[in-house]
Amino acid sequence: MEEKAEKLIHDSYRISREIEQFKKGRDPKQLNRVFETISGELQKGTGMLMAASPIGNTEGAFRISMNLLNTQDGKSYAVAFTSEKEQAKGRERGQLTTAIVLPIRNILETVMQNEKVAGLAIDPWGENFILVREAMQVLLNQDRQNHLEEKMKENGELELAISRYYEEIERGKAGNLSDEEKEPGLRRELQAVLASILNGMSRQAQVLVAVSRAEGEAKQTEQLTSESRLFLNRLKTSDGKTVLAVFTRGEEIRKGKNETGVIAMPLRDILHSGQQLGTDAGLDGVLINPWGQRFLLNRSLLDWILKAEDMEKTAEQRRAALETREMRTMGALLGAVVGNSLEYESRKKENPCPSVEGLKMGEWEQGGALLFAELDSLNEQKKLDFEDMMDRFFRQRMHGAYSADGTAPENSGRCFESAVMKNARGVSPLLCGESGDGYQSDESLQRMLPFALLLVRRGHEFGDTDRAMLHQAVQLFQNDGRVKLTAEIFALMLRNLLLERGGEDLEQQLAAAVNEARLFYMQEDEEGMSEEEKEMNREALEAHRESIADYDEMTRALPELGHILDITALRELDNGALPESGDAAGTLENALWCLLNTTNYQEAVIEAFAIGGKGLALVTGAIAGAAYRYEAIPKEWSENLPKREWAESLCAGFQKAWIG
Question: What is the mean pLDDT of the chain?
Answer without folding.
Answer: 88
